[in-house]
Design a protein that fits this description.
Helices cover about 0% and strands about 45% of the residues. By secondary structure, it is an all-beta fold. The chain folds into three domains: about 55 residues, no CATH class; about 80 residues, Sandwich (Immunoglobulin-like), CATH 2.60.40; about 140 residues, Sandwich (Immunoglobulin-like), CATH 2.60.40. The strands form eight sheets. The chain has a five-stranded mixed β-sheet, with no helix packed on it. The protein has a four-stranded antiparallel β-sheet with strand order 9-8-11-12, with no helix packed on it. A three-stranded antiparallel β-sheet has the order 1-4-5, with no helix packed on it. The termini are far apart. The relative contact order is 0.11.
Length: about 290
Amino acid sequence: VYLASSPATINVTGLPTGIAAVNNAGTITISGNAVTPGTYNYSIVLTATCGQLTRTGTIIVNAAPTVAFNVMGPACMERNTLFADASTPNSGTINNWQWNFGDPSGSQNTSTLQNPSHLYTNSGIYQVTLNVTTDKGCVGIPIIQPVTVNKRPNAGFILPEVCLLDPFAQFTDTSRMEAPGTITAWSWNFGDPASGANNTSTAQNAIHTYGTATSFNVQLVATSNVGCTDTVRSQLTVNGGNPVADALVLNAASLCVKDSVAVQNKSSITQGIITKLEIYWDNTIP
């Protein structure tokens, strides 16, 4: 605001706290950092011997956004950790997000998405930073929040040798978890949807009865005490019945001491396949 220089008094009222008016040879400059949001109507009154001049104006102070975020679900190594923005704009709308996941050794350590995800390769505590900006140009105060990324279990199990006539197949859990974590839940899928509700189990060492001689894809999901999971799958072959062991010595009529013996496997099974063969030699000399 420019005012003709003359002997006069200048009075400025209605400015928000943190904003000041400075008169420099008749030019009044209003500037500063407002403390409290709101709408402020100010007046500049010039009083001189020849009269009085008044000018008015309005200053709108927008509130800065409040920055906040949440981690969705457990944070586990080698799995995407999901972040959800929980910031409040206070004035206008938020239109810019600046994330830093505190993981300089990983790829894509930053993001401008509202609700991003990040894959941490290693377990540990990471300092995650978020700041936001509104369409009014107001920038929040960055928030830095520690996020604990937990180790995952290592799922595993032993496939049983099973035939169709066996009462059930016994699966043995071999899953491991690095201390101090523990495995607290097991979820089996026996790859046998025809068995209905019996196709799944939450036992650690589960059993299942198969009604068909074929191959089945068995899956185990191991879950830790903090909710981190690992999945392992393996193919199980159910044989059709009890195998009949048999072998044929190919050179039986011409064997001599220290000769090699040629044996042909003649074992059979009514349905399925033979998955293991063991030969025992009787070295007793009559």
